[in-house]
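Researcher: We're teaching a course module on how sequence relates to structure. For the next exercise, students receive a sequence and then see the predicted structure as tokens, so they can try to spot secondary structure elements on their own. Here is the exercise chain.
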Amino acid sequence: MRDREERVVVYIDGFNLYYGIRETLGSKYLWLDLASLSPRLLRPDQRLVTIKYFTARMRKPPEKRKRQSDYLEAVGSTIQVEILYGRYQRSLVECRICRRPYVTYTEKMTDVRMAVELLGDVCTNLMNTALIVTGDADLVPAIEKVKSLFPDKRVEVAFPPGREHNALKSVASAYIVIGEDRLLSSQFPEQVPKADGFVLTRPTAWT
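Model: And here is the predicted structure for the students to work with:
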């Protein structure tokens, strides 16, 4: 029997959301207030419990690292959001054309950490509905496992712009696509003051 109150935890795949917005709508919506966006993804009968944001700190180039650092500090200034980190792994790969080796960095552990958090929160009954913001089909097995072990729980998906995936649609209890109107209404102000008085400013590349 399902709980009467629809308690929701929002799980946000940071890079999937970032690239979905950037590749579809450009950079103007990247100064995104997740604490403002998340309630706009819920139905009126749902109550937000907490927001979990999954990302990894970039290492290069310096200008992108600085923008990300400022953004993460802005996100961290809102008490509703918990930031959980994966990592970037350094790899040496060979160019297919010239055969010369070069260094690249690959995001690791984000989807695994999301799956672990999801299963842990279900087991502790933190929520009865999970809302996952992603278009990454790697989370399909975790969703299937939740639904098989806890048939009274719901797992809904909110697709970032341009990131719809049929495999996720097939296992989700429900799904929506995050539209431009929600992003526009969920921007941080141009300047975000931190608790210590330091003021964060929207990166000029995101104006």
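Model: If you want an answer key for the exercise: The chain has a mean pLDDT of 90. The two ends are 48 Å apart (CA to CA).
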